[in-house]
Design a protein that fits this description.
Elements (H helix, E strand, L loop, with lengths): L1 E6 L3 H15 L3 E5 L10 H6 L3 E5 L7 E5 L4 E5 L11 E6 L2 E7 L9 H23 L3 E6 L12 H4 L7 H12 L2 E3 L13 E2 L11 E2 L2 E6 H4 L2 E6 L15 E5 L2
Parallel strand pairs: 1-2, 7-8
Antiparallel strand pairs: 1-14, 2-4, 3-4, 5-6, 6-7, 8-12, 9-12, 10-11, 13-14
Helix pairs in contact: 3-5
The chain binds one DNA strand of 18 nucleotides through strand 10.
Length: 255
Amino acid sequence: MRIASWNVNSLKVRLPQVLDWLAKHQPHALCLQELKLEDANFPIAAIESAGYFAAFSGQKTYNGVAILSRSPATNVARGIAGFGDPQRRVISADVSGVRLVCAYVPNGQSLDSDKYNYKLGWLSSFSAWLERELAEHPQLAVLGDYNIAPEDSDVHDPKAWEGQVLVSAPERDAFRNLIRLGFSDSFRQFEQPEKSYTWWDYRMNGFKRNLGLRIDHILLSHGLVAKCTGCSIDLEPRRNERPSDHAPIVAELSL
DNA sequence: ATGGCGCCACATTGGCGA
């Protein structure tokens, strides 16, 4: 079972690339973030023609998440239970016996921004909710754009980024708190190339110079990580014309 | 030097992303 996550930065613009990627990699499930479209505009026909079911939660302009799956997604839930968030950032569902959570963690903008406080509060609610989800679903995978680079090795220039949003100590503490609930960072369960990242700034030839951050992650519960046989970042779509600024991350499960 | 690039919308400029 191949599961994947990709922040597409507008599904409207990236739809042809998503369809190409599905055809090439045939994942059992693909979690998408930053759809940037309302549910009424979700390209359901194109996704279904590609052989996928879709569960989605979108809004105009910002955010928006979806789970595409080859078998139907059941018990679909939207948002973080008990956290009334108008921003569409979380969708979860059962797919072939695995509970999938697709998440788009707030960016935070900068440490002195209200958006940063929102991010930390959001992560606190997310963590409390995931603890309950984990108790209910031993086979739990949390895929998405976490907007946190967990370690300096996940940052192209740790000195330049020191203390900035995406790498600040409170954000990294929040990420570690998620791990402590009973998850593993699937990417770090395997030997990986040096300087592996999932996001590169559009500006300054960030991708060509590999000036990136590893901020997209697939967290697996202990019940699932034992069945994980690999995890990798697919750099190819970042080389496309009009690419997303994020690359897909893929995990293989022996299920 | 807070820029750069890309996407979106109350659009020809500003908000936001990371």
